[in-house]
Amino acid sequence: MALARGRASLTNVTRAGLDTLTTLFLCPRTHKRVAAFRDRRVRDLVTHACRNVPYYGRLFSAHGLRPEDVNGVRDLWKVPVTTRRTLQGLRPEEIVARGTDPGALIAAQSSGSTGRRLTIRRTWAEERLLRALRNRVGRRRGRRPWERGARLEIPERLRPHDARRPGIFLPKLGLYDDRSIDCLAEPAYIIERLRALRPSVIGGFPPVLFRVARHAGDGGLADLGVRAIVVGGEVLTPAMRRRISAAFNAPIHENYGSIEFVQMAWQCPVGEQMHLCDDTMVLEVLGNSQPVAEGEVGEVVATALHSYAMPLIRYQIGDLATQGAPRCPCGAPVATIRGVRGRMLDYFPLPDGRVVHPYELTMPMMAAHAWIEQYQLTQELVDRVVLRIVPSGPPPAEAMAHLRRQYAESLGAEVAFEVHLVEDLNLDANGKCRVSRSLVRSPYDEPAAEIP
Ligand SMILES: [Zn+2]
Fold first, then answer.
1. Higher pLDDT residue, 179 or 78?
2. How confident is the model at residue 451 (pLDDT cuts 50, 70, 90)?
3. Which long-range contacts does 285-291 make (Cβ < 8 Å, 24+ apart)?
């Protein structure tokens, strides 16, 4: 019985793979074709998860749902949202498809600077496909496969099954040869490595590239001939974008990726929106469990269309994003978001009972104060908020007074607010520099025992 089920599931997966390869790589891409493909994948994935993954089987039966109730993307809302915390609490055997040995899969830890991490597991073929889709986005952005890239990141430790990882074959052929540079190193060392590698494309977190850019100064790295810089994983202020672009004399492309879904969205080549990777995942932006209107901020919930070993169906990744147009104004046949705004973990619970996201506080600040290059907003106590600013130069007294007024109005009279002008902000151990954080527990926090 188990064997028969395993074999049926394998046939299913093979069929899904063929459908994916022909639709995504062989046929011309049209909105209609991608929409039909997404519906097929959602039906297939839901049926597979419900039958073969113990967690989803239980979830569906607990809600009286049958796989045939989900007939495509339009019915996905019927499936309850799954949080990272829920999956963290389960054993691998409960979230990985039956007949698959969790230990034989390629494992990666989902990021998260606090709390326990979630291990995401994929087969070799799944990993290969997601990376191929990521490379395709790179090509659309203008990356030539034979050009060398540099990634400013935490150097990857050797992972189990690393030898089978897809990423190691192409560089041997001189394709997508991305070299890793330790992003926690001093800017001078990073610049030395960049000069030795001479990459055409550089990727990294905004605060890391910002430090490097400030160290080098405007035009200081223009001789490297970098064609494009891809940034993501943290908030990029307009001033940081200007500085980085000026130092390298290269355009900046914002990118939205994750361990769970690999490539999620990328900046439209001609507009302000971000193109969603519609053929890789279904992304929803929700407020109170409903899709939010265009221009509104909500919680990101996504479904991975190509993950069968460890399905992620309506998985709440913990990010906040601004909803974009259902079709990009540039004419590309994709839905959009306007950008990623931060993490749900960062909500500030205030003494008056309100829970505000710091984005609501920093957005008006950035609109009014162009002299702020980089900032970090910390709620140290429920009634004490500290703002650290890296200014482009000494700000006028009236600008500081205006800033204090803005925060006093938003935070309320019970909260003491301090501003410190600093020369630099420290990077976190993961190479990021969280623009906002609360040291006070909020409803979105992980359980207390898991906070280091
Ligand atoms: Zn576009």
1. 78
2. very low
3. 285/321, 285/322, 285/323, 285/337, 286/81, 289/81, 291/323
pLDDT at 165 over 70: no
Classify 296 as helix, strand or coil. Answer: coil
Q: In Å, what is the CA distance from 389 to each residue of 142, 338, 394, 401?
A: 34, 25, 11, 14
Q: Mention the CATH class of domain 347-450.
A: alpha beta
Query: How far apart are the CA of 332 and the centre of ligand 1, in A?
Result: 6
Ligand 1 centroid from CA 334, angstroms: 8
* Distance between Cα 260 and ligand 1 center (Å): 24
Over its C-alpha atoms, the chain yields an Rg (Å, rounded) of 23
Q: How far is ligand 1, taken at its centre, from the CA of residue 138, in Å?
A: 15
Please list the residue range(s) of the chain that carry CATH number 3.30.300.30. Answer: 347-450
Q: Which CATH class is domain 124-341?
A: alpha beta
Question: Ligand 1 centroid to 145 CA: how many Å?
Answer: 22
Cα(56)–Cα(121) distance, integer angstroms: 16
What is the CA(299)–ligand 1 centre distance, in A? 22
Q: Rounded to the nearest whole angstrom, what is the distance from the C-alpha of residue 150 to the centroid of ligand 1?
A: 26
